[in-house]
Amino acid sequence: NTNNVLDALSQGGLSEEPVQQQIEAAESGGGATWNIVPSAGKKIKKSKKKVQGRRKSAASCSRGTDNDDDEVGDDQSGQGGRAERQREHPFIVTEPGEIARGKKNGLDYLFHLYEQCAEFLSQVQNIAKERGEKCPTKVTNQVFRHAKKAGATYINKPKMRHYVHCYALHCLDEDISNAIRKSFKERGENVGAWRQACFEPLLALAGRQGWDIDGIFSSHPGLSIWYVPTVLRKLCHAQCSNLAVVPKSVSSFAGATTSHSY
Amino acid sequence: NTNNVLDALSQGGLSEEPVQQQIEAAESGGGATWNIVPSAGKKIKKSKKKVQGRRKSAASCSRGTDNDDDEVGDDQSGQGGRAERQREHPFIVTEPGEIARGKKNGLDYLFHLYEQCAEFLSQVQNIAKERGEKCPTKVTNQVFRHAKKAGATYINKPKMRHYVHCYALHCLDEDISNAIRKSFKERGENVGAWRQACFEPLLALAGRQGWDIDGIFSSHPGLSIWYVPTVLRKLCHAQCSNLAVVPKSVSSFAGATTSHSY
DNA sequence: AGAAGGACCAGTGGTCCGTA
DNA sequence: AGAAGGACCAGTGGTCCGTA
């Protein structure tokens, strides 16, 4: 029950941060412990956004065990008026199994976040089914909100979307993914460079499947819950059309979309 | 090519309204002709809403035949400054095969609109695939927009959503659907009463399938492209839970959600 | 400089309610 | 009164850019 509860809070203190049961549920059950927690807080948030309002009418129709579920948490707003949660430590390129040292997080931890999100989605789906509400099939805003309420404040949409294609490569060809991690670690590359490098083997893989990136995502159970990133979709389409049209945000690839290395 | 192009424009004039090729494509190919067109125009619209802007970047990546597709139409705004399209004639309860007379539309026509939407969705999907964009699986706002641009100005979201469950019953058990139409026509009931009556047999049907209304919709090809109406979902859940919680908008059913007639 | 994520924005699902 | 649908609204997908 309490084994790796502290995954999210191991190095770096902030132990007064309430640890939610929901995080335990979202933990996959492995044994690893990563260093995750950011530098000590010093900022005081002000807005506190009490929006979210408008409880759905007729919410009383479910009975028994499920009547709160979405209401967990509500804490992380200035408990003692002091420690406000800070940014996560930045990622560094680590090899499989390697724990990042210092104020850094490793890539095993990054991929672990995707699995936590899957578990949070599963919780949201269960709640929705109990209540007879529309049931999401993807990691939506609602899931991110649920994760946050459940205390997993280190999970957020921009981060997860940013690295989806890296996780995709990890799912679809772990050997290649691992090889790239090792090579980029050796070369001392930063996370951004590693992230960019994950596109190429994914594209090669997609090419072997008729460039059907949606099909590739939806066929893999761990991947099917993630939206296909726009950039990846565009790269696949550009490759398929053999046109060197590359969106601005991957312009470091520009001119190399046809057959050369990139 | 030109056989039932005028389905949408048969009785009621307004022949100066441009008939779009896209409508032809969206016609299912049957032979029936309904009376659809509203009373002659007299209102002048003012806003004209030229929004929609922001063409997606890198739109040039598709080649050949598809480069406009979303741009069709653009006409129906005060062509000669005169006839502005008016409301559709209201629906009346008709038996299968019966043509509504006077300034009315019949239920075969209503169901035909659902099939036109399916065809418009299919067109939107083809365009999206050609362009390598995200491909909708349901009748979304984008599809309604496409339908409107293609000249099918009589299709709109509130109307289609309003009668989805009636179409569902028509798809899932045409015999029962037809029987209700005949009976309600005989009794001289209005469309609202007929619409309400469509819930009950649908619920009975859902009960036989474990109240899995999402599963029922997604298993039927013509139905899977429609969102399950919120009211129907709530009714199924209430029945499943044997609780008499009925949303306000179907309160004419109130007190009858457990076992009695309704 | 490289990176994390709050917060914004255009377009969505949903449907109310002013209209005819 | 009964009904059609413009138009609004809360919450979405997507990601920029002020922040650290």
Sequence-ordered SSE layout with sheet pairings:
Two copies of one chain form a homodimer.
Chain A: H1 21-26, H2 107-131, H3 141-149, H4 157-162, H5 164-172, H6 174-186, H7 191-197, H8 199-208, H9 213-219, H10 230-241
Chain A binds a DNA duplex (20 and 20 nucleotides) through residues 38-39, 51-54, 86-91, 140-142, 156-159, 161-162, 190-192, 227, 230, 249.
Keywords (chains A, B): Activator, Developmental protein, DNA-binding, Nucleus, Transcription, Transcription regulation
GO molecular function (chains A, B): DNA binding
Family (chains A, B): Belongs to the FLO/LFY family.
Largest interface: A-B, 25 and 25 residues
Mean pLDDT of chain A: 74
Backbone structural class of chain A: mainly alpha
- Assembly annotation: homodimer
Uncertain runs of chain A are 1-20, 35-83, 244-262
Family (chains A, B): Belongs to the FLO/LFY family.
GO molecular function, one term (chains A, B): DNA binding
GO biological process, one term (chains A, B): regulation of DNA-templated transcription
Function (chains A, B): Probable transcription factor.
